[in-house]
Design a protein that fits this description.
ARM-type_fold, single chain, 321 residues, 17 helices, Leucine-rich Repeat Variant
Length: 321
Amino acid sequence: MDDERWAGWPEPWAGTDADMRTVVGAVPQEVKDGFKYDEIPWQRFPHFYGPGEEIPGRLATLASQDAEAARRALGELWENLHHQGSTIAVAALAVPFLLRIATTGAPRLRASTLRLVAEIARCQHFGDGRREGLLQVAEDPEDAEGTTMCPVDWTIQAARAAITADLHLLFPFLPNPDPEVRSATAFVLATATGEMPRISSALHSRLAVEDDPAVRVSLILAIAQLAREDQDEHAPAWARALWSDAVQPLETRVGAALAWLCLVDDPVPDELRTLLTDPCTDQLNELFQRVPWLPPVDYYGSGLRRCIHEMLTPDVPWHSA
C-alpha cells in the first residue's frame, strides 16, 4: 500500500466508486423494484469464492419457483456473501434484492433470507458474547476487505442504509405467522440507521402482543440494539424494569438482562447475577438458540451460556469455564 492510490487510505476513497455507500446509494429505485440485475456493477466486486457476476444468477434462482434450486442458491449466497462471520463489499449490492425476494419468494426460505440480510449489515461477531460485542453493529474502521481493500464498515453502512430505505418491505413481516420470520425481521430492523422512533415503536407494539418466547427475546434485543446505536438514555431503565419484574416470563427477564448489560457499564447487580446463574436460566439455552443474535456466539448450542459467562466473568476465558 505504498503507491498513490493507497495514500491516506481510506479517506480519499470516500464518495468514489470504491465506496460501497456511494455505489449502493446510487442504485435507482426502479432497478431494485424491477430486479434489473444487469444495471448493477457486480463485476467490480468479487464474492468470497469467485467473481461478483455470479451473484445475480443466484439471486434470480432464489427468486424462482424451483424450490430445490432456490434452497441451494440461498446456501450458496450465504457462503458467497457472509463467510465465517465476515461480510464482503458485493454483499451490500445484494441487500435490496434479497429484501424483495424475501417478500415475493418461497415462504419457507424467508427467515433465512432475512437473517442473511441482517448478518451482512453487522460486524464480525463469531464467538463474541461480551457486553460490548453482542449488540455491536459497526466494524473496526481499520478493517479492510482483503481483495478490494474496501473498508468493511463502509460495506456495513451501505447495507444498513439499504435496509433503512426499504423499511416498508419489513414492517409487514412483524405479524407474520412464522415465528422465525418475526425473529428474523426484528434482527434486520435492529440494523437500520434512520427512523429509529418509528422502528422502536413498531417493535414495542409487537412485543406487547407477542406470544412466542424466542420472538419476544428477539424483539427485546432489537429494541436494545437500536437504543444502543441511537444512545437512547431511556432504554436502560426500560430493560431493567423488565428483568427485575418477577411477573414476567423467565425468557423475557433473561433477554432483558442481556439487553441491559449491553446498554450500560454499571457493575452487575446481585439480583441480576442471581437471575442469570439460576439453574432454570440454564435450561433456556435451546430456546435462545432460536434468537438470531445467539447462534453466532456459540454454534454448538451454548450461546446463552457463553453470553452469561462472558458478561458476568469477563476475565475468565470461555474455554476454561
